[in-house]
Amino acid sequence: MKRSVRITFIVLIVAMAAAVVALRARNGERESRLSAPTTGTTP
Amino acid sequence: MKRFEQLIYIAALALLAVLLFSEGRRSASLDEREGVSAKALYAELSNPQVKVQLVDLRAYDDDGYLDTHVPGAIPMPECDPSKAPEPARERVYSYVTTVLITQDGQSAALEACKQRFAHARVLQGGMDGWSEARLPEDTGDYAPPKNAAGGGCL
User: Fold this and answer.
1) Is 70 exceeded by the pLDDT of residue B1?
2) Tens digits of per-residue pLDDT, B73-108?
3) ipTM of the complex
4) Do B30 and A34 touch (CB under 8 A)?
5) Domain spans of chain A, in order of start
6) Could B5 and A27 be called an inter-chain contact, meaning their C-beta atoms sit closer than 8 Å?
7) Cα distance from B70 to chain A (closest Cα, Å)?
8) Where are the beta strands (DSSP E) in B23-111?
9) Domain B35-132 class, CATH top level
10) What residues of B are in contact with residue A31 (Cβ under 8 Å)?
């Protein structure tokens, strides 16, 4: 396999993995915020 | 090993694509549950590149839509087209990103309308939230936009 093709594959995989991790973290945070009980405090 | 190198890369890419797709779906379903804040909706409406349809599910009477509504909102009480005024009935499209407006942002309205729209969100706080944010409001009967009209609804 050509070096340039290998580098392209690796860059693509790293970019997609980073996107998956970022999206997972964001979704997890949103999900926990939504499922957290909303408690109101009066000043 | 070298023979399978390309195959391994392709398999890894396919796996990541599946993961990305499933996270995207999860994000879309969270969008539906979370709703949109009044200020975020105002920002969306101000952007002519974004097409958003506003559907007001409150009663079409002096205590509801006629008293005050988000400019450009289409009245469809209880998500029932038969209860909508005549000019509004043909204005509701199923495949446009839709924001559902209730009085106080209860998401039960979203459940009732889920079947009707491909992608629907609820306005957080409903019409009360929009008024509290001191954003532009409109009153009176629904008037469909004129064909020659250009620009946004605000």
Assistant:
1) no
2) 999 988 888 888 888 888 888 888 899 998 887 766
3) 0.80
4) yes
5) 1-32
6) no
7) 26
8) 53-56, 74-75, 98-101
9) alpha beta
10) 30
